[in-house]
Amino acid sequence: MEQYYGTGRRKTSVARVFLRPGSGNIQVNGLPFAEYFGGLVKAVSALEPLRQVDATNRFDAYITVKGGGKSGQIDAIQLGIARALVNYDGDLRAKLKPAGLLTRDPREVERKKYGKHKARRAPQYSKR
Q1: Mind listing the pLDDT tens digit for each residue in 23-71?
Q2: Longest dimension (CA), the chain
Q3: E strand or H helix at 14, and its extent?
Q4: Would you call 20 helix, strand, or coil by DSSP?
Q5: How confident is the model at residue 1 (pLDDT cuts 50, 70, 90)?
Q6: What CATH number does residue 24 fall under?
Q7: CA–CA distance, 86 with 9 (Å, rounded to integer)
Q8: Alpha carbon distance 126, 91 (integer Å)
Q9: Whole-angstrom Cα distance, residue 83 to residue 88?
Q10: Which parts of this chain are annotated as the region Disordered (predicted)?
Q11: Domain ranges, residue 82
């Protein structure tokens, strides 16, 4: 069976995306896409790479995602789908790259430092 793979990462989330020719069935961690993200409006942005190349109903996607929260997982899935599509056909890169769908967002959480409340928040200054 033909299968195309892409890995997506965002914050602490990692998504493994497997695209197979099919009818548009998308499963995330064994659940239907809509059920896994349970009505989150942002979730539809994860499928943006498929819309950009008019492949919404040409592929079935089997996705495993772990780590982070739902928002990071959605962005990780988006990158994974885009990379899997480029794996399928390198010419699709010309459509996905200008839309910013092949760029990994490098922002990570900054670590907390000692003597601070958070990463940068210092204790309140007291004059007396």
Answers
A1: 999 999 999 999 999 888 999 999 999 999 998 899 999 999 999 999 9
A2: 73
A3: strand 13-21
A4: strand
A5: confident
A6: 3.30.230.10
A7: 16
A8: 61
A9: 9
A10: 105-128
A11: 4-96
